[in-house]
Amino acid sequence: MDLQNFENWLRSIKNKKGNPYSEKAIATRIKNLKTVENILVNVDECIRTDRSMYNALITLKQIDVPEHQYLQTSLRRYWEFKHGLEFPRLNIYEEKHGIRITE
Q1: For residues 62 and 79, what is the distance between their CA atoms, to the nearest angstrom?
Q2: Residue 80 maps to a domain
Q3: Whole-prediction pTM value?
Q4: Rounded CA gap, 70 and 13, in Å?
Q5: Nearest to 73 by CA among 26, 33, 24, 18
């Protein structure tokens, strides 16, 4: 995981509301990404392909912890950092690839 460059990247972009990320938000994204790595073992492998990213998001979605959506968000931001674009919403990905629609 390239945490230092990810952290620097978060400092250089704006959030969905058009504001810079706060230091607290950046620290939370980093903490959540470390939690994702503890769960999924290798974050870089999870974001290697569209399919591996999809599988990682589905795995996180199925984990019974209240913050699983926040974990997904952190993984999505890491994908965006590494690939330069956002990963599509699950239902859009599923429709495009003929996968059953998630609930």
Answers
A1: 20
A2: yes
A3: 0.86
A4: 18
A5: 33
At residue 48, the 3 state secondary structure works out as: coil
* Number of folded domains that form the chain: 1
Judge whether 103 lies within some domain.
no
Query: pLDDT for 54-79, tens place per residue?
Result: 999 999 988 867 767 789 999 999 99
Give the domain range for residue 27: 3-97
Give, in degrees to the nearest 5, the angle at Cα 24 between 19 and 10: 55
C-alpha torsion sign, points 24, 45, 4, 79: negative
**C-alpha distances out from residue 44 to 22, 36, 55, 67, 70, Å:** 25, 11, 13, 21, 18
Strand partners, 20: 14
Q: Quick check: is 102 in a domain?
A: no
Cα–Cα dist 50/96, whole Å: 12
